[in-house]
Structures are given as C-alpha cells and as structure tokens.
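Extended Data, record Small CPxCG-related zinc finger protein
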Amino acid sequence: MGIFNRLGREVEEFKQSAKEAAEERHDYRCEACDARFATEYEECPDCGAEAVVAADDE
C-alpha cells in the first residue's frame, strides 16, 4: 500500500506544480481592470473593455 500512497503524493505534487506554472504565465492584461490572461482576447472577459494588450506593453 505504501507505493500507492507515494505515487499519489507525487502525482498531486506534479499537478500543483503544473497549476502554479500555468498561473504564473500571463502574456496579456486588461488596461482597464488589470486582469491578466494567458490568451489574447478582443475584449476583457472580466470587465468587457476592449483594452487587452500584451503584458510587456506596460
């Protein structure tokens, strides 16, 4: 049973690491509400403004 517990912990650690890495990547942002996104949008899904720009355009 110990091998399954260890494997389960390793899988959970991998999931958490992958989730954190995905959340850290924000290539776009909304100039109106400063929401951050990994995908470019025509208008901000949070506030609806047409102000989504590349995050490095600060």
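Summary. The longest strand covers residues 28-30.
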